[in-house]
Amino acid sequence: MASGVKPRVKAPKSAAAGEVVTIKTLISHKMESGQRKDKEGNLIPRSIINRFTCDFNGQNVIDVELFPAISTNPYFEFEATIPEAGDMKFTWYDDDGSVYEDSKSIQVG
Amino acid sequence: MKFKALTAAAALIVAMPVMSLADPDDDQLVINGDLEITTKAAAPAHMEETGIDTIMSGWHFRSDETQALEMDDFDNPGMIFVDKAIDTWNAVEGSAGKSCASCHDDPSSMKGVRAVYPKWNEEAGEVRTIAAQVNDCRKTRMGAETWKYDGDDMAAMEALITLQSRGMPVNVAIDGPVQAVWEQGKDLYYTRTGQLDLSCASCHEQNYGNMIRADHLSQGQINAFPTYRLKNAKLNTVHARFKGCVRDTRAETYKPGSSEFVALELYVASRGNGLSVEGPSVRN
């Protein structure tokens, strides 16, 4: 597991039914591209977050594929319509197989 | 026809008020929607002969997009390092089996510290920066290895300590026991160095608001350090910035943590007396 990985999410605690809310997410990750070399000239193996998804009550909101050109600490900001109260689940997939999760409950009313 | 259009365009350019593209703006910095930051203030009395009457945070010299990154802690990438420093704060290290928290409890006990540093340390009989104080704590109280003066660990810890005082006015003392060091810092500020023969004042006093190649020259205030720079995607300390500046004059630089840079830090900090502590900030 890459070190110092910590997911963060900023989402409103409540929304009106049908309201479009802004979600901000950030995960601290070094996003090693696999192109760089260390002091001895050996290639540093690739280690990145390669996929990010967000689901609301089991329904997919976004599903993003990430590639090595994305810089350190990837940040995503997107909008989602909140039809009913529920849980928003965020998942990040690491190259090494680790999966990092976070979730936020959003109330309606 | 074409000639006429060109003449008209030229006339328009001449008619425009004399204002460079790099002038500071008048935006207001409010962090998280509730913390108002003083980014412009009347110059402290000791700056009377400099011709500067308003001191300004470097925030005013950045683009709207960069400015916005600092207005919400979630968007501020410097906060990632603050989070790391909180873990370090609570981690036991060294032969004494202590962490920062063992003596200082919560990081909030550091409130007010950043506003008055560098300051005189009576026991040591010298001017101490926050970094010097942190390393002294690590060595003598924790029995741990000292950090590199301008390294990542130190920058992150400085950010955590700075954050506690965010919004408070910078108020470093320049008289009493520190006066000699302050004078030394002032001398350094006005000493030209390197093949380019530039002093700090050449850019940051006489030419702030102008372009230096593709970048905007600020007043060189350090109230907002440590600074997350978009160009290197990490926190930068005051001394690392000094080193970069002196290097850019094509001079051999002083070392981060050296008595020369400590003196310069004290002097430059005093030029920001009245601005808010703003770090960790975002710059490009």
TrEMBL record, chain A:
Q: Which InterPro entries match?
A: Ig-like_fold, Ig_E-set, SoxZ, SoxZ_dom
Sulphur oxidation protein SoxZ domain: residues covered: 10-103
Q: Which domain of life is it from?
A: Bacteria
Return any one Pfam family short name. Answer: SoxZ
Family annotation (Gene3D superfamilies)? Immunoglobulins
> What is the name attached to this protein's record?
Thiosulfate oxidation carrier complex protein SoxZ
Q: Write down the species.
A: Antarcticimicrobium luteum
| Gene label | soxZ
TrEMBL record, chain B:
Report the cofactors: heme c; heme
Q: What is its EC number?
A: 2.8.5.2
User: Which Gene Ontology molecular-function terms are recorded?
Assistant: electron transfer activity; heme binding; metal ion binding; oxidoreductase activity, acting on a sulfur group of donors, cytochrome as acceptor; protein heterodimerization activity; thiosulfate-cyanide sulfurtransferase activity
Question: What positions does the entry give for heme c 1 binding?
Answer: 100, 103-104, 137
Active-site residues, as the UniProt record annotates them? 245
Q: What does the record give as the reaction this protein catalyses?
A: S-sulfanyl-L-cysteinyl-[SoxY protein] + thiosulfate + 2 Fe(III)-[cytochrome c] = S-(2-sulfodisulfanyl)-L-cysteinyl-[SoxY protein] + 2 Fe(II)-[cytochrome c] + 2 H(+); L-cysteinyl-[SoxY protein] + thiosulfate + 2 Fe(III)-[cytochrome c] = S-sulfosulfanyl-L-cysteinyl-[SoxY protein] + 2 Fe(II)-[cytochrome c] + 2 H(+)
Extent of the signal sequence: 1-22
| Gene Ontology terms: biological process | sulfur oxidation
Query: Which sites bind substrate?
Result: 241
Q: Which UniProt keywords apply?
A: Electron transport, Heme, Iron, Metal-binding, Periplasm, Signal, Transferase, Transport
Annotated GO CC locations = cytochrome complex; periplasmic space
Cross-referenced InterPro entries: Cyt_c-like_dom, Cyt_c-like_dom_sf, SoxA
Q: What does the cofactor section's free text say about binding?
A: Binds 2 heme groups per subunit.
Locate the Cytochrome c domain: which residues?
85-170, 184-277
- Residues that bind heme c 2: 200, 203-204, 245
Major location (coarse): periplasm
Subcellular localization(s) per the UniProt record = Periplasm
Source organism superkingdom: Bacteria
Q: How does it assemble?
A: Heterodimer of SoxA and SoxX.
Q: Which family does it belong to?
A: Belongs to the SoxA family.
Name this polypeptide is given? SoxAX cytochrome complex subunit A
Organism source for this protein? Antarcticimicrobium luteum
